[in-house]
């Protein structure tokens, strides 16, 4: 039985990975690196630890002690933790922060990949167990986007790809082909709520992978929390990049979207050009 490490943040995605890995016969050691992770992680993992991301030395020692040679990083750990108060970093974390040349997402994550490699841990492709959650182009909901909304999806898709190329974010909110919000340090949900509030109603949310997406980390994902953020300020459409975005809690999300009259679709550059 292989031992897989799971560095878990907030959301359902770590639970989905855990269950699939265990179904395939893996032993899973989970380290919750932030508070408020899903309770199922503690209940279902073979071993479970709560160690804040600022205690990097403790995380690495725990992975070594548990015999972990492969690991994945899943769940929300927003960049604002670098500017917040999570306690005093340990020596390894301080050295890590001194070495990174900037605070861009990819810079930080690639440096963390190197830290894990130093102790003999390979970071897995996040989609290795989760490919079924990456749907092909389609409309999931009963309501189809209108012609004007399709124009906003095309505009938002191109815009999201541009901010992704700059390693800024993966999500944009648009209305009538004007940018209402662009995801930055605040994360997807705050971006959606801010943009939908500015649009007042009828906003279109588009989430894509970065053109240079490294599938070992930060693969875009949506779920119930994403939809709730859109609904809070009467957003109308949620569009994701087909086959490059993880769609968790699909049944619940689609059912709620149908109830509220929201359109959800997966699109690609090819499907949008037809």
Automatic annotation (TrEMBL):
Pfam families per UniProt: LpxI_C, LpxI_N
Domain of life: Bacteria
Record-annotated LpxI N-terminal domain positions: 4-131
Residue ranges constituting the LpxI C-terminal domain according to the UniProt record: 139-264
Descriptive protein name: DUF1009 domain-containing protein
